[in-house]
Amino acid sequence: MSAPLKFKQLGLIGCGLMGASFALALQKHGLVDKVKGFSPSARTRERALQLGVIHQAATSAEQAAEGCDIVLLAVPVSRTAECLQAITPALSPDCLLMDVGSTKTDVVAAAAAYLDERLPCFVPAHPIAGKAEAGVDHAEADLYQDRRAILTPLAQTGAVQLENAKQVWTAIGSHVSLMNPQDHDATFAAVSHVPHLLAFAAVNALSAQDQGAAFLKMAGPGFRDFSRIAASDPAVWRDILSANQAEVIKQTSLFRAALDDFEKAIQNHDLNHLQKLIEEASRVRSSWSLQTGLTGQTEDDD
Amino acid sequence: MSAPLKFKQLGLIGCGLMGASFALALQKHGLVDKVKGFSPSARTRERALQLGVIHQAATSAEQAAEGCDIVLLAVPVSRTAECLQAITPALSPDCLLMDVGSTKTDVVAAAAAYLDERLPCFVPAHPIAGKAEAGVDHAEADLYQDRRAILTPLAQTGAVQLENAKQVWTAIGSHVSLMNPQDHDATFAAVSHVPHLLAFAAVNALSAQDQGAAFLKMAGPGFRDFSRIAASDPAVWRDILSANQAEVIKQTSLFRAALDDFEKAIQNHDLNHLQKLIEEASRVRSSWSLQTGLTGQTEDDD
Fold first, then answer.
1. What tens digit of pLDDT does each residue of A71-84 get?
2. Domain A184-287, CATH 2.70.40.10 — does that match?
3. Which residues of A fall within a CB distance of 8 Å from B76?
4. What digits encode the pLDDT tens for the residues B94-105?
5. 8 Å CB contact of A262 and B195
């Protein structure tokens, strides 16, 4: 075993739920001495200080990153590129730089475009965690406990950085997986982005009807669970669906084809085929379960 | 207050989860002296006797209904018509006859076709309850506790029967609502049948892909809840989707239009419109909640 992981200073760029929870987790597990943080919102900076998420408020992303041996970019996916560009000159050569974005191909492209000789510092990360309430006020040190964290290293990523990234997520309780960015985006389009999109569309289709409100009053536990992810944060999901457009549209095409099969069987009164289609879905879903310790809460987004 | 409701004999036709739980609930609440039951399966009849669900096994649906002051038809929707036809000659003139089907227009049409002068006995019912495991072995006296029960009386339904139906569901802990059969089917197409259909299609779209199994391993809590209803019973849902075909297809058309809106916004990089669409879904879903005491378990189907 190597020496226990310990960082001198975390530079936190973005003090929302994800970033602030990461800072609290590192502190809880004794992985960092000091946290310097930036948020474009003065109120958020103040609350982050009050809540002990950060020890020092920076006046810019660049200032937050400067002199830190670990830097976390926890900003909306749509702001990743500009943030990377801004902080590159301030990054220490040996630092570990990570993000927490739900899409990875776009982040990797931005990193390749802007990080220059700091590219080896960067380990793109996607922790599969979250909760319904956003913002620094809802941050918690255990947000990443028993959750999956996916790392999508680049060819240029430094071996030390990758090893440290694995260790830090493991130390705060996450289960680390490695994927390449393309596989990551294809996978999460299929199991997360498109399910969100379908839930959004299902709720909108309901609410747009004259009788929508009356219908919704009669909805039961099945609808509750099916539609839970439709309550997700609009700005976050706008960015995800947009950033992962190609894979999302590929998956919706496959979904439409599957829906066509059902509709044809229903309209043709082909009960045998309809039953076979449902049997397939029921068999697959019944034999599926959450992997590796990822149990418990129903409030977590992915 | 009138005298407490009490039946002499329940005729139970179908001893699966729904029917057997109804029999246990009536016994638990002292609403019935004796239960006579029929199932086409000898094993089910035997288990129903062993478990105290029924006191006497009948050799046919007709025999189960004979001489009973309350009769519950708890068979797959596709078998309702033949069962109604079979039992009509055996029904007592003043009995209360109910079903538990998830679709109502088709049941009402079958009743009108076959019940003849026993039509006033019939109160079509749809208890919004269930659980993942089917069959008599999983029956429980509290299945209908704190659940919604919808009654869709016909113009010919007797006032006494309707009142008794309200009382019996209320007595076993359900919250009774009245609807007409057409509104019922339109409502549940929108909030239950189509969400099930979308979940079935989403799971099939995933599993049909070469990488489907790999994708599914990475699915998280969002997918778990979204797809839970895809594990539902194939024969039951084949019948529901088929019986409620017109309303289901109407709702899938509206869903497809809503999905089109999202896809256009994504493909046109219209981030403002995409955000507005998600905001609408998120607002509607966030402000929605299960009505009237219908809380708790996530294992219940509707």
1. 999 998 889 999 99
2. no
3. none
4. 999 999 999 999
5. no
